[in-house]
Amino acid sequence: KILQKKGQFTVFVPTDDAFAKMPKGSVESLLKPENKKRLREILKYHIIKSRVPTKKISSGTAKLKMLNEKRAVLSSKDGKVKINQANILKADIMAKNGIIHIIDEVLLPQE
Q1: Is the Cβ–Cβ distance between 102 and 93 less than 8 Å?
Q2: Nearest to 62 by CA among 1, 4, 10
Q3: Residue 45 pLDDT level (bands cut at 50, 70, 90)
Q4: Which residues touch 71 (CB under 8 Å, ≥6 apart)?
Q5: Spatial separation of the C-alpha atoms in residues 67 and 88, rounded to whole Å
Q6: Dist CA 81 CA 38 (whole Å)
Q7: CB neighbourhood size of 109 (10 A)
C-alpha cells in the first residue's frame, strides 16, 4: 500500500540470495502473524520517501531517513555504492514513482 501512495520513493530491493543469507528460519518466522509489526519495520527500512539516485553521492557518505524513521548510511568509495553494509548490485532502475536499487543483503533496522 505504501508504494501506491502519491509521491516519489527509493526502494532498496534485496536479491533472493540476500534472503538466503539470513539465518535459517528467520524469513519463515517473520511471516508469522505475531511478527507482523517487525516485518513491517524491516520492509519500511528498505524505502525512502524521495528519489535518491546513486549519482547524488559521488564519494563519501550520506545519512538517509528511511520510511520507518530509522537512519541508514549510503556510502560511495572507489565507484562502489553501499547502503549500510549491503552492496548496491544494480543501481538507478527508474520506475514511474521512483527509483529501485538492487542490494545483496536484507537491511535490518536496529531495535
Answers
A1: yes
A2: 10
A3: very high
A4: 63, 64, 65
A5: 19
A6: 27
A7: 17
Instruction: For residues 68 and 107, give the distance between their C-alpha atoms in angstroms, rounded to a whole number.
Output: 12
> Look-up: residue for cell 549500510?
84
Contacts of 37 (CB under 8 A, 6+ apart): none
Span 40-45, mean pLDDT? 94
- CB neighbours of 55 closer than 8 A, spacing ≥ 6? 92
Which grid coordinates belong to 65? Answer: 531517513
For cell 553494509, what's the residue? 85
HEC profile of 5-66: CCCCEEEEEECHHHHHCCCCCHHHHHCCHHHHHHHHHHHHCCEECCCCCHHHCCCEEEEEEC
Answer yes or no: is pLDDT of 1 > 70: no
Say which residue the cell 501506491 belongs to: 4
Q: Are the C-beta atoms of residues 90 and 71 closer than 8 Å to each other?
A: no
